[in-house]
Amino acid sequence: MAYHGGGSRMTRDLQTMFSEFYSSEDDFSKAAALEPLILRGRKTNTHLLLDSFRDQTEYTQASIIFAMRWIANARAKRILVNLMSEEWLTISVRAALTDVIRSLGLSQCKPIVQKQLQHTAPEIRFWSCTALGMMGNADDLEQLQALLGDNAIGWEKETVAQAARGAIDWIRLGE
Predict the structure, then answer these.
(1) pTM to 2 decimals?
(2) Which of 69, 5, 86 is CA-nearest to residue 43?
(3) Residue 24 contacts by C-beta under 8 Å, 6 or more apart in sequence?
(4) Selection from 170, 90, 162 nearest residue 98 by Cα
(5) Can you give the pLDDT of all 175 residues of the chain as single tens digits?
(6) CA-based torsion, 78, 93, 135, 68: positive or negative
(7) Cβ(79)–Cβ(38) under 8 Å?
């Protein structure tokens, strides 16, 4: 997905955005730093952001993802959906992304979320359960029930099994 070209003005815009982003203290300030780049409506800006995303630290990648949750416009959502299919994401970045996908209700990511239920990392299984609880249906109950014995810690002190139980309850509540 590499984009090459665009000129020095866009490179300066991107550098300015990251400079403001790095100096921001909280998610709202980080979102304010990202928003102009995403909202401009230039496809090249999105390509520049995605090209530079991979070069950022894991912490910065997760911060960008969480900031996009606050922007939550169509362009930011498309970026998040595109990121879900990237294989190179680290476990913590994929966990953060799956959490944001869940909170924004991006159901087009459901096939990836279903596949992530089998991931080797408990954090990914945990957040995938919570996401599936929000976007899943009765067809997903069997996959979630298979995780009811998964006592690996997925987030803080909560297990994958607890997330699966919560997801099952949410799906049944919505039926």
Answers:
(1) 0.77
(2) 5
(3) 30, 32, 33
(4) 90
(5) 333 344 455 566 667 766 777 777 776 777 777 777 666 655 555 666 666 778 788 888 888 888 888 888 888 888 899 899 888 999 999 999 999 999 999 999 999 999 999 999 999 999 999 999 999 999 999 999 999 999 999 999 999 999 999 999 999 998 7
(6) negative
(7) yes
Tokens representing 138 are: 């009765």
Segments in the chain forming alpha helices (H): 8-23, 27-39, 43-53, 58-71, 74-84, 91-104, 110-116, 122-135, 141-145, 160-174
Sign of CA dihedral 175, 77, 34, 129: positive
Torsions phi, psi of 63, nearest 5? -65, -40
